Amino acid sequence: MGITYMMTKHNTVDPLQAEAERVMDDLRTSKTIASDLAYDLNRTPFIDAIRAQVRPEDKELVFALCSSPDRNIALFAINLLKNIEHEQGVKDFIFKMWRESKDYVIKSKTTFRLMDYEELTINEHREIYNFIKEHWGH
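RESULT FIELD:
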């Protein structure tokens, strides 16, 4: 992904923001994302800029990406959930993913998303705590 400066007549558009908008626009128009590109974009500052472009109406798109069998795409999408975490069904989706995943990396990344929720029940906290305790140091 080449980042270039985009100039308008009256102002300069942040190149990172422009590229982030392009990534989300491509995803919204059903373009696929390659595993290696998802991997490259899933780090600062790229992921922060792309996450800022995620809108509530992108929820199903992000869910579909999270469900990808490709680990890099799934991890990229898990990080996109942050911007829509309070939309209806997102917490339940993350918990379902967390509970069903056999992939340690996916499970650990969804753990971070779950910890964003202040209103977790005591049983949900206990589940997460037991996972962390069991896998500490792996």
